[in-house]
Amino acid sequence: MGLVSVLLISFCVLSISMIGTDNIVVGIPTTLDGPFKPVTVPLDKTFRGHAVDLPDTDPRVQRVVQGFEPEQISVSLSTTHDSVWISWITGDFQIGDRIKPLNPKTVASVVRYGRLRIPLIHKATGYSLVYNQLYPFVGLQNYTSGIIHHVRLTGLKPNTLYHYQCGDPSIPAMSSTYYFKTMPASGPKSYPSRIAIVGDLGLTYNTTSTVDHVIGNNPDLILLVGDVCYANLYLTNGTGADCYSCSFSQTPIHETYQPRWDYWGRYMQPVTSKIPIMVVEGNHEIEKQVENQTFVAYSSRFAFPSKESGSSSTFYYSFNAGGIHFIMLGGYIAYNKSAHQYKWLKKDLAKVDRKVTPWLVATWHPPWYSTYKAHYREAECMRTAMEDLLYQYGVDIIFNGHIHAYERSNRVYNYTLDPCGPVHITVGDGGNREKMAIAHADEPRNCPDPSTTPDEYMGGFCAFNFTSGPAAGKFCWDRQPDYSAYRESSFGHGIFEVKNETHALWTWHRNQDMYNSPGDQIYIVRQPERCPTEPKHF
Prior knowledge:
By secondary structure, the protein is of the alpha+beta class.
């Protein structure tokens, strides 16, 4: 046997020894190795990112279609693999003192689709709407959207590539042909290859870096955990600022510049027309307008599987992606035990069959376990209302945004290290123009006054001093808390890869790194034999 053959055999043996069953790579830490000693990566002051919004002159955000041809095309999931939603916009928006909304009935909502590119043998129809953003103050410009279309496709096969066109064939005004891939059928050995998790994305030059990195990781699904385009950092005349309250404190109402939504939809179309995206609301989607209406753009522009999952709201819903059950919760709608959301959550959790969907993942915008000064313990009322229920049903992982930095917790429940508690991961580092969070509440002189911490929109006060542990009697720890395993102020995104019923690989990628270089990586390991997956009592 020659030297080359010996070396080749040795390399193959080494490679096999490094990769166990289900492609579990030896050497990457797992949550079974924890709890981990808290780590804070020092701030790289040379890299603050290019958190400057793309201007309306950028070709990537300009309207390139004609008449009622579709634009801002996106795919989103229904509750199961056999159904998806296709959404798009026809006609242009209007903004100014005198606007005349388009009539949705004048343009049909049609999708032609099939497993072959030609011919597209199936046809589905849906519904359309127009929304307005109106202000009851002289001098502010009102907005009316183009016609927004949502069409649900049904009867799809799992893990299958479909081609589609959308629009109105009678005009004719149909789109080019796009494609998407359905999710695998639900089952304990059936998972999407990769799921991208992003938060607080915005539409800056840093956003473009994040999106480029996401595309490079070839995900099957994207989760956007709130704060989409930051249209509310602008006045209605298009003047923007990094901090609205700092620059525009005298405005009679918090204004928005709604065309930023259209710019975002156009920029994202090359991604969202092919990769399903699931969105949950953040605080930057509040967008208050006439008659105290809120979240109108968010609720109008995206399709949600709310009805399919038994929800009456676009703020909370659930869906399956293979053997994962995702629960998307609303941090900006009532969540107490008498609220519709809590009752829905309780029913949804009770219906989950962990033999079919072993992994249970929850997502909402404001985190419960963040150690940054920004928004510190802001969602404490939500935590006290819902944490017990999520723990009793054995939620494995929780993804949040809101904090413009990255943080991963040890397994935690009620501020105590707990091997059966979920791992909380904050990925609010998508690249928006408000820039990164860098101050930690446990650093000297950084602990906020408790009276300043309640969420301004939801109200309520639940954040009291800790009653036990190293921080007993205090509102903040005087060092990085034990429940915080890793934190770093950098822009980036995460990739979630479920390998089997018990192991999932989590990788956080920083924008400044090479595409295949992880900033943080760990196997999250379930222990169903040790930890509860359903409550013993209610």
